[in-house]
Every structure is written in structure tokens, then in C-alpha cells.
């Protein structure tokens, strides 16, 4: 049974996950997801980069991070509390990872 989170949580993917189950949400390392519900070792939520990408994913592939919440109810949006420098470095590394993948893996 899915249990709604008392407050929105943010998780950062620490492993790639293909989302190879029914209603699975594929995740890549570093992707941020907002977690809305829990069921055993699974979470249900959406990608913060694409709010229309909803699904379930194992709890073991994300690390829960401290966050601040703006708004309330269904419109609540969680944002990471990380230091701005840490966010910038993480963003640059994610961009580089996409470029390296495009240059060396996809060709």
C-alpha cells in the first residue's frame, strides 16, 4: 500500500536505473526526483527536470537529501538545500557526463 510522504522529499540518483518495471521511472546518476509516496523499498515520484515524468523506482537507487519546501499540498515544490557551489559543480559534472556519453558511447 502506497503511503503519502508527510512532507515532500528530494532524492538524488546514485545509480542508473532503467525503469524496467511497469510504471518505472528511469533514472540516471545525479538526477533529482521529488518523492511523494513510499511502499516498502519503493518510492513514487517525478523527475524535477521533467515534472511530467512520473513513476516508481527502488529506494536503493536514490539518496534522500535535505530540502526546503515551497508551497503546500499538491503544488508543493522541494528544492535542495545544498551550498550553491556544490550545486554548480554537480550541474557542470552532469553536463560533462552527457557530453562524454554523446561523444564516446553513442558513436
UniProtKB/TrEMBL annotation:
PANTHER family: DEDICATOR OF CYTOKINESIS, SPONGE, ISOFORM E. One of its GO terms (biological process) is small GTPase-mediated signal transduction. One of its GO terms (cellular component) is plasma membrane. InterPro entries: DOCK, DOCK_N, SH3_domain. It comes from the Eukaryota. This is (apollo) hypothetical protein. GO terms for molecular function: guanyl-nucleotide exchange factor activity; small GTPase binding. Keywords: SH3 domain. Residues 6-67 form the SH3 domain. The lineage of its organism: Eukaryota, Metazoa, Ecdysozoa, Arthropoda, Hexapoda.
